[in-house]
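Write out a record, fold above all:
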Amino acid sequence: MRANLLKKTELRIDNIYLSDANLTDIASAAGCVLGLPPEEILVVDYQHGRLVLDILNRSVDACNIVGKHEALIKKLGSLAGVFVSEKTAVYSNGMLGWIALDEGSAVEALIESHKKVGEIRRTIARRVAVFSSGEEVAKKEIADTNTPAIKNRFEAEGYVVIKRETLSDDKALMSAKLRDAAELGGYGIIVITGGVGAERKDQTVEAIQTVDPGAATPYVCRFEKGTGRHFKDGVKIAVGRYNDTVIIALPGPNDEVTASLDPLIEGLRENATSQALAERIAANLRQILRRKMKGRKGNNCHEGCQLHLPD
């Protein structure tokens, strides 16, 4: 189990004495005991029988820490120029303090802690944040019908859904809000609606790509770039991941959002990859668009542009 040291990264060893000792060897020996590469351990101070080590890795395997007090002292004492005694002791705050615990009881505590972490992760995985987007929604010129639809559908599946604010069409602000929600909000899933179109103001997909450069962004349909109001060459949706949170961008029209919820939830249930989940949603939206276009002359949509639906 990885443990975040939460900035409490110093190990203090008292009643240890050095005489022409090699600090690189000390760091290497400590790393050997704690399961860390020597370059991740730095000797930051030595004065009057007190040696201070700093762990440069902010996340360590807790199993490598527990009960290693005696092993660390013994290993350091075997080095040339390093002298230890019965009075030598290791101290630390935070997770590193586990080094001084009895190994048997500490392992039991670690197992219990691991169980609690699992419970917390399962709880977070069932929490959904829903953002709407667009100035017309923010100004209440258009009712937000998407958030209630998403909330009702997810809650029927046992999720806890929290309505978040309406985001303006600003990529930097949008990406910052999504990142903050993923880092601090305790959400396993974030859904944002609107802003996936081909106009200059549509920035939702780009905001998710800022948060996750590897996000899946399949086309729902494509246009000839520059025709009509189309600043971009098509409409996309996006599925990305950040900090173990799945972030999904859906279109703005309510019928398309509603129709996307079944494939979305099915994909989440199957723990689908970002690419598989995004393509499942996009394929469903293409079918809807085909039905909408059926009966129209050719593939003309509006303002003379040609619409192309990927296979």
User: Anything to note?
Assistant: The CA atoms of residues 179 and 211 lie 6 Å apart.
